[in-house]
Write a structure and sequence with these properties.
It is a single chain. The protein is mostly helical. The chain contains 6 helices and no strands. It has helices at 3-12, 14-18, 26-35, 42-49, 53-60, 67-75. Helix 4 crosses helix 6 (67-75).
C-alpha cells in the first residue's frame, strides 16, 4: 500500500491517525507507516501533504506543530 492508501486511512480512521501524532519528522511517519504495511518515501509525504520545502523544514525541526501539520494536510 502506498501514500494514497495511507492518506485515505488517516482521513477515515482517527485511531490510525493517532498512531502518528508523536512522530517528529516526515521520516518518522514513513518508518511508522512501514510498520503498518505501507510503503512510501519522504518525498511522497511532501507531495501528498502539499507542503513546501520551507514547511517541511519547519516540521522536521519541530516547528509549526510538528507532524500534525502533515496529518492535517492529509485530512483536509
Amino acid at each position: 500500500m502506498g501514500i494514497k492508501e495511507f492518506s485515505e486511512k488517516v482521513k477515515s480512521d482517527s485511531a490510525f491517525a493517532a498512531k502518528f501524532k508523536n512522530a517528529k519528522t516526515p521520516a518518522q511517519i514513513v518508518d511508522l507507516a512501514k510498520a503498518e504495511g505501507y510503503s512510501f518515501t519522504v518525498d511522497d509525504v511532501k507531495a501528498a501533504s502539499n507542503l513546501s520545502d520551507k514547511d517541511l523544514d519547519a516540521v522536521a525541526g519541530g516547528g509549526s506543530g510538528g507532524v500534525n501539520v502533515i496529518l492535517t494536510n492529509f485530512i483536509s
